[in-house]
Structure formats: structure tokens, C-alpha cells
Amino acid sequence: MFVASAVPVPSASPRAVGGDGGLTGALPVAVGLTAPFHFVGYAVLAALVARANGSERRAVAVAVGAVTATAFGLGVEFAQAPIPWRSFSVVDAAVNAAGAVVGALGYALGRGRSVRRRGR
Fold first, then answer.
1. What is the CA radius of gyration of the chain?
2. Domain assignment of residue 59, given as a range
3. Using CA atoms, how far apart are residues 10 and 36, in angstroms rounded to an integer?
């Protein structure tokens, strides 16, 4: 994810990202077309970190997954700040954090279901 966050990308025209008042122009905050990729990417990262944590306590695994993925996302945003073709984005950091929380909670819910199935 770090490499994908640092490589140059072609600039999108203002029309392509909602500058004409389209779909993204109707949102209450400036959310770009990459937001779904941020959300899903950090959700998957948090779920994988929670799973790899190895803690028997689900709450610990969820917390470690969410905090680690959120911290990584914030670090990536800071690393993008000095890159000429990238920039630091508070919105991206927030979307990363939201994805991380949802992914870690999703892991916990999935783990709870598999434990219940095995117990039957």
C-alpha cells in the first residue's frame, strides 16, 4: 500500500472528480474517487493485522488491528506531504481510519461466527 501511495498518478480533471457538481460535488466533504480504495485497503489491512496478532482476546486483536492500520495510514499521509505529485490529506487519513475500524470489527464479527459454528 505504501508504494501505491507514493507513485505518480495522472492528474484527474476537475470534471472527473466532481468539479461540475456531480456525484462527489454533492457530498458534504471533499471526497475523491480514491476514497473507496482507501477505505477497502485499510479495512483489509486492519483485518489482517488483527488476525496476525494471535491474541486470544478478540478486543485486543481488534484494537491492535485498528490502531496499527490507522497509524500506518497516517504515516503514509505524512510521507506523501513532501512528494511533489502527492499531498497530505486529512480526508484520506479519516477514510483510512474509518476503513481500519470497520475492517477490525469485521474481523471480530467473522471470528465470532466461526467460533460459534465450531461449537455446534
1. 17
2. 34-119
3. 18
pTM: 0.74
- Residue 94 counted as domain residue: yes
In this prediction, residue 27 has a pLDDT band, given cuts at 50, 70 and 90, of very low
Q: What is the largest distance, in Å, between two alpha-carbon atoms of the chain?
A: 56
Which of 12-16, 100-104, 115-119 comes out lowest in average pLDDT?
12-16
In sequence order, what are the residues at sequence separation of 6 or more whose Cβ sits closer than 8 angstroms to the Cβ of residue 7?
none
Residue 17 lies in a domain: no
Domain annotation covers residue 57: yes
Sign, CA torsion 61/69/39/26: positive
Count of domains in the chain? 1
